[in-house]
Design a protein that fits this description.
With about 675 residues, this protein is α+β, with helices and mostly antiparallel strands. The protein contains 19 helices and 29 strands. Helix 17 packs parallel to helix 19. Bound molecules: flavin-adenine dinucleotide (FAD). Flavin-adenine dinucleotide binds next to helix 1, strand 16, strand 21 and helix 14.
Length: about 675
């Protein structure tokens, strides 16, 4: 079936397609370069609007960096974990392969574009792949020198718990992990500053300020730096606080905080099975059923541009070169690959594409490793941020969310548990004294496991070596120098780095619609509202590219919907006030910094002290500084009132939010 018009099925969220008449005039052909989330999303929007679409993908698996893949020969560890990978016997699979992944998938509550697309992909008899998303229950913060603690990943059940949740988060940070109370309040004030800053100032000033400076980390405590500086940036987006744009980190951070604090969807969702099995493969089948032609093993080598238009692309298909023509071309390639394809002719037609070369300086390594266990160790009911781990680890125990997927039927039948870990910092020495970037694959597996144990085993020994069955590290991590001795080889090349939004890089990033009338861009590094290299950004970029094509061919088809990041309306007047100031050349108005206290229900430091002091007697000393007195508007009666209120509701509320239970 080619083309299609969306019609409502009996399920509100499930859209089915029925054939429609081809577009007026000759059908237009769109060639998409790259079959990751950007390429698939563009194909999704185009086939349903009656275009002929072909995707050229260099790998033999769809999904790009979002893919899950068969861990066909994971390295066996069992009792001999210290044996290098090449000497260890490899698992002889009896059933289908164990599930591996490039990196685990996290769908924060603020995602909109990719979720809407998922709602249009049929799954099973009456559902969609969006039904395969499940809420996690909590986000665990796991430092290595004290017990872990959890933040709720769902909205509190009662309105009264909301304030308690905010108190509790700040109190938890203060009382349990040693962020001084005035630092916690100071950070809340910085977030208030961000929320009340207008978009123009964010784009110009905060885009050129790094996150570290924005939150004034140099002048605060080591714990403040670790949690609010490095912890937020390194663990969530593989960025480094001193280089990451305050605009990007601030925007995403507040989205996640609102996801936790506002009712609606959960802050953190995951898929209920391996990504390709429950999402990407059904998606590809769905698109193929509508006429999409998806070519695997097809490496795009050149983009031929003449007379200001793309004429064709040269594709190598198993050593045979093919010239592929089309009316429109969508580049959905990673930035470092796209930059290689920018020819003088393309540059002449759109000089701004030169920026892509500069942008390739801003990619970082972020790669997942999976540990298969003989027992299902549920370390947390959601993601875990190993906040001070040298290699910036985040992890998740997968099988608890994979209800219809029996991992024991995979591989040799001995696996019951799976901890999937993302390694986000490859430049800092681990406890083995080496940066991940100069380790062998086996050293990476050993050291990552050691770092995991250090942060998970503080109170109880949750992770043990004897639980280990095997591990799998993405084959895209290679020793390109082809060291003859594989036992000592170092991984020196990551074939798929990830763009990170560093300071002042917005100006280098392309629009989805280029100045070349038939070339469009649909990847995570394109300028989008999302503004963070994620599946959400790739999907939004694809929607923008498709709208560009629809405009270019004068189509009357409905345009793809695009949404801006939503911030609660209560902040709009403050942003309007700042916009007026910004346009007059005035700085952000710091005199209103007292308002975060009232807006968040944190009228003063002393109220917090009471909560902290009661939950963890002796946990805090006198707060540093004199924030309560310094805060304009933090009057004594407010303080007492808040303290009373907190005292009345916090114990039960905190317990119900699973915040004081600890482990
Ligand atoms: C470890 C890790 C974890 C992540 N976790 C999350 C997460 O939890 N949530 C989230 O939203 N985002 C996450 N991301 C980011 C997200 O995966 C990416 O931003 C997104 O998948 C990018 O999609 P894309 O289509 O723009 O690019 P890609 O996924 O890179 O797709 C590009 C495609 O082009 C193909 N290709 C490359 N060169 C050629 C060529 N010459 N010819 C033909 N084809 C070519 C590639 O094989 C690939 O399939 C993570 C990233 C990493 C690395």
């Amino acid at each position: 079936m080619r083309g299609g018009r969306a019609i409502e099925s009996t399920r509100a969220s499930c859209l089915r397609f029925e054939p429609v008449a081809p577009m007026a005039g000759a059908r237009k052909k769109v060639v998409i370069l790259g079959g990751g989330i950007g390429g698939l999303s563009a194909a999704h929007e185009l086939v349903r609007r009656g275009f002929d679409v072909e995707v050229y993908e260099r790998k033999s698996i769809p999904g790009g960096k979002a893919r899950s893949l068969a861990a066909a020969r994971p390295s066996l560890v069992r009792s001999t974990f210290s044996v290098p990978e090449t000497r260890a016997s490899l698992v002889a699979p009896q059933g289908p392969s164990l599930p591996g992944e490039h990196g685990f998938r996290f769908f924060p509550g603020f995602y909109r574009h990719i979720i809407e697309t998922m709602k249009e992909i049929p799954f099973g008899t009456a559902g969609t792949v969006a039904d395969n998303l499940v809420d996690t229950g909590e986000l665990r913060i796991a430092p290595s020198d004290r017990s872990s603690f959890d933040l709720p990943a769902v909205f509190p059940e009662r309105p009264a718990d909301l304030k308690v949740a905010v108190f509790a988060i700040v109190a938890e940070l203060s009382g349990k992990v040693g962020v001084p109370l005035d630092d916690a309040v100071f950070f809340a004030a910085k977030i208030w500053q961000f929320l009340t800053t207008c978009e123009e100032r964010r784009l110009v000033e905060y885009e050129r300020t790094n996150w570290w400076d924005f939150i004034e980390a140099d002048s605060r405590s080591p714990a403040y730096r670790m949690y609010f500086g490095n912890g937020i940036t390194r663990s969530l987006v593989a960025a480094k606080a001193r280089r990451a744009s305050a605009k990007t980190i601030g925007s995403i951070f507040v989205q996640i905080v609102f996801d936790i604090l506002l009712p609606g969807v959960a802050a953190d969702r995951v898929l209920n099975g391996p990504t390709n099995e429950v999402w990407i493969d059904p998606w590809l089948s769905h698109l193929r059923a509508q006429g999409l032609v998806y070519h695997f093993d097809s490496d795009v080598r050149t983009i031929r541009c003449e007379r200001g238009r793309v004429q064709s692309v040269t594709v190598a298909v198993r050593n045979t070169l093919r010239e592929v023509t089309g009316d429109y071309f969508v580049a959905a390639l990673p930035v470092e690959r796209m930059a290689e394809l920018i020819s003088p002719e393309l540059l002449a037609a759109d000089p701004s594409l030169a920026n892509l070369h500069a942008l390739t300086e801003y990619v970082e390594w972020m790669i997942g490793i999976q540990y298969y266990l003989t027992v299902d160790v549920r370390v947390a009911r959601g993601h875990v941020i190993h906040v001070d781990s040298p290699w910036a680890l985040t992890s998740i125990s997968q099988p608890q969310f994979w209800k219809n997927f029996d991992i024991s039927k995979r591989g040799d039948g001995l696996v019951r548990g799976l901890i999937s870990v993302d390694i986000s910092d490859w430049d800092v020495a681990g406890s083995n004294g080496k940066e991940a970037q100069i380790c062998s694959r086996n050293e990476i597996a050993l050291e990552t496991w050691a770092q995991l144990k250090k942060s998970m085993n503080f109170s109880d020994e949750l992770l043990r070596d004897d639980q280990l069955h095997s591990w799998f590290l993405d084959p895209g991590l290679i020793d390109a120098d082809a060291d003859a001795n594989r036992l000592t080889s170092r991984v020196d090349t990551n074939l798929e780095p990830l763009l990170v939004n560093y300071v002042d890089t917005w100006r280098l990033r392309p629009e989805a619609v280029t100045r070349i009338p038939n070339l469009f861009m649909a990847s995570d590094y394109v300028r989008t509202f999302t503004d963070l290299a994620t599946m959400e950004a790739a999907n939004e970029a694809a929607r923008r590219a498709v709208n560009g094509i629809l405009n270019a061919c004068g189509s009357r088809e409905e345009r793809c919907e695009i949404w801006n990041l939503h911030e609660p309306a209560v902040f709009a007047p403050f942003r309007a006030h700042d916009r007026t100031r910004y346009r007059k050349g005035l700085p952000w108005d710091g005199s209103e910094v007292a308002l975060p206290m009232s807006a968040l229900g944190l009228p003063a430091t002393r109220a917090l002290q009471q909560v902290v002091g009661r939950a963890w007697p002796g946990a805090i000393g006198a707060p540093r500084g004199a924030n309560a007195a310094a805060m304009p508007g933090a009057r004594e009666d407010n303080i007492e009132e808040a303290a009373l209120e907190a005292r009345a509701s916090s114990d039960e509320g905190l317990r119900r939010l699973r915040i004081v239970s600890g482990r």
